[in-house]
Every structure is written in structure tokens, then in C-alpha cells.
Hints:
The chain has helices spanning 14-25, 37-46, 61-72, 108-126, 138-151, 165-172, 174-195, 219-233, 240-245, 280-295, and strands spanning 6-10, 30-34, 51-56, 81-85, 101-104, 156-163, 201-206, 209-214, 247-251, 257-261, 264-271, 301-304. The mean pLDDT is 89. It is α/β, with parallel strands linked by helices. 43% of the residues lie in helices and 22% in strands. The chain has two domains: 6-126, Rossmann fold, CATH 3.40.50.2300; 138-304, Alpha-Beta Plaits, CATH 3.30.70.270. It contains ten helices and twelve strands.
Amino acid sequence: xxxxxxxxxxxxxxxxxxxxxxxxxxxxxxxxxxxxxxxxxxxxxxxxxxxxxxxxxxxxxxxxxxxxxxxxxxxxxxxxxxxxxxxxxxxxxxxxxxxxxxxxxxxxxxxxxxxxxxxxxxxxxxxxxxxxxxxxxxxxxxxxxxxxxxxxxxxxxxxxxxxxxxxxxxxxxxxxxxxxxxxxxxxxxxxxxxxxxxxxxxxxxxxxxxxxxxxxxxxxxxxxxxxxxxxxxxxxxxxxxxxxxxxxxxxxxxxxxxxxxxxxxxxxxxxxxxxxxxxxxxxxxxxxxxxxxxxxxxxxxxxxxxxxxx
Length: 310
């Protein structure tokens, strides 16, 4: 059975919050409530939810501005937002308020669950969010890279994946493997967000492959921090003896028993600070090449392309 979807609810009125929490819990959704949008940011940054429901009051320009700034952030623009508005308010101007749908207060009982389900389903179809990590998938990743290249932005692209992840899955099962992938997604997101709060991006290609984008001058530092923190955390996913030996016994791709080291992280980096790219495929190819060099090293490793020109 799949785990319940997580909804962040932002509403100052206790009565309104109680009504929405009651209706959503019956689905069931896992509801995490806050009284204002600013207080919800730390939670959203650390545990990307499936939906944000926010009550918009008349004249509350501050909340609308914060919401719009949040939705313009490449890290969280894919998060669907459902606005709850009063019956006396005109319909939101969708060019001014970056919500994906709305429901009026008088229609909460009849519509809130259906609207929430529609917002989540639409986001999963259109934005291609990875269902495990809640990070944007391939389409969003390609768009991010190409958009930045077309604008002439100078940035760094990092490709990260896990070494010896398949033997871990075979030994401990897919459930524990999924927990590792969720940890990696949260780790990259948190470090990228801390190092470069604005203009950065994190995506999940699929499986154990991740992407992040930041400034050309910060991308290598971020990658090193991710690798160092990963090395500190990953032993906790192993059982006692495997953890102390830093290896496991599993089966290789030919079906033979083999000893595999503990999971490590390899990161390849390409930037357009020294060489120009016009197409996302050119840049991703170089990042992939660097990742192969990183995987040839023992332990977690970061490799950056430092060549100039074409």
C-alpha cells in the first residue's frame, strides 16, 4: 500500500484549518499545518510535499507576494498550489497569483478533496515529478538546462549517482533502497538550498541518478559537501556487521557471489564558464563524461571539467 500524500496547509483561522484538516484526513492525506506561509518554508525545503493549500485573505498582498516568489524559485516551481478564497472575493487573476487552482470557502466540504486530488494528478502529469523524492524529472531538467543556456546564464551542472547501489538493493530489499534514494534527494536539496538559496535547481533523473544546477563558482563546493555528508550518513543504512566491515556479500550481474564496498557517490560537473554550449545535450554529455571519471576513483568522488573552448 502506498503512503498517504502529504499536504501543507497554510491558514490563520483555526475554524477554517480544522474544517480542511478534517476533510483531507478522511481521504486520507497527511496534513501538516502552519498559520502563515513564511513559517512553512523550512518544512517545505526539507520535506517537499505533494500539495500546498493556502488561504488567501482580502488585501493580504504580503502572502501573495511570498507565494509568487516561492513559485518562481526553480527548486519549488513544480509544487502545486490550491488557493482557498472567500465567497466575496473575485476570482484570482492567474497572471498575478501563482496558484494552480482555487476553491471557495462555501464549497470546501464538497470540493476540497476533489480539487486537491486534481492538483496533485495534474502536477504529476504535466511537471513529471518523481513520485519517490518529489523532485522534478527529465522533462523539467532538460527545460532548466536549455532555458539557462538560451538566456546566456553562466552556471554549473552536476550529475550524481550512487556506486554499488544495486548490490545494496539485492541484499536489503527495495524498501531500504528507496529510503537511501529519498535521503540522497533531501541531502542534495538541503545543501543546494543552503549554499545558493536563489536560482538553483535539483532534479531526479530516475533510479539513483540526480542532477543539480547552481552558479559555476559554487557547484564544485556544493558537490563536495554533498559527497562528504553522504559518506557520513550512508553507513547508518547498513546492518551492524556490514557497517563495521563497510561491505556486503551480494550477487554480481553474472549471478556470482561477490563482496561489494559500501555505497559511494560519484559526481561529474560541467560548467559554461570556460567553454560555450548551445544545446543541453552538449553540456549533459560532458557532465556524464566527468561522472565516469569520478566513478573510476575509489570512494565518493567529484570531478569537474576544466577544459577551455570546444
